[in-house]
Specification:
Elements (H helix, E strand, L loop, with lengths): L1 H26 L12 E4 L4 E7 L5 E4 L12 H4 L5 E5 L14 H14 L6 E6 L1 H12 L4 E7 L3 E3 L2 E7 L2 E3 L19 E2 L11 H11 L3 H26 L9 E6 L5 H8 L5 E6 L6 H4 L1 H17 L7 E4 L8
Parallel strand pairs: 3-4, 3-5, 5-6, 6-11, 11-12, 12-13
Antiparallel strand pairs: 1-2, 2-4, 7-8, 8-9, 9-10
Length: about 325
Amino acid sequence: MQRRMLASFWLGSALLLVLLATISAQSVSTNQNPPTPLGELVDVGGYRVHLYCTGTGSPTVVIVGAGFSVDWGLVQPEVAKLTQVCSYDHSGIGWSDDGPKDSCALRVGEVHTALKNVGVQGPYVLVGHSLGGLIARLYAGRFPDEVAGIVFVDHAMSIKGRLTLTLLPGLTMPPPSPPDGTAVGPSGGPKLVGLEDDPNFSKLPSQDREAHVWFMAQPRNQKALQSNAEIVPQCLAEADALVKEHSQPLGGKPLVDVDTNQSAAAELQTQLLSLSRNSKEMVADKSGHYVIIDRPDVVVDAVSQVVRSARNKTPLQDKSTLVKYWEPSYR
């Protein structure tokens, strides 16, 4: 019953958010010419997806979203100093072509095929922000031998009606506000917050900011918005099924869950940490949902710990960490 109610909620929300995205797109002034792709367009079976790989070394870090590849402009260059890292735009967004009907299985297949077709060898450390956390879990369930570790960044959640989910790259509906009424929209519902509305958006390199804004102004992202809302219930069901089928499905592979003080979903964190016996939580102080620009230092630290643990076959250090805010030097 709860899952059916959530499905109805998201399908209804999609229609509202499509309208909001349309208004937002009409109000954005952009150049006529699209930005030049950062990486390469890789055929994944009759259409192409954008894959951007930098750095050298193993295990390769693979960013499976959500969001645009350019949204990781404060994280990817730092991770590339340690190992190879690839970010990706799923079909229908960014530089990628439109693809078949969207689903979590499709996205998992796109990442897998793109990596194989360009010769990037696994096993990989998967990094998933928001809905991308579900994609990472499903990839690990489908290709367990290709996963060396996982980093969740403010994982999408559905705990007793509380939801955090990237519905469209750059457009997010945070969980319902606490009783004090903070972060409530003018109609009394959850306030809509986009990556470009985050005060730290300006810290992204100018090239990445301009590409993000250009992409957000394109009408086809409205289709991606609706698709994201439609696939959520199935993604959650598939991820939950994996947990029920396997106790600690990742075994001893390193897992770090980067959470925020605003999330406060203890039940979800317990479930995520239980996926591996080699896991830890890192809480990013003074960060909203967009940890990748609010606290990129925490994300880089988490990825580095998982890479080193996988590379050296050693356990993660410390089981829980609150990472205090400091003004990062990323520009």
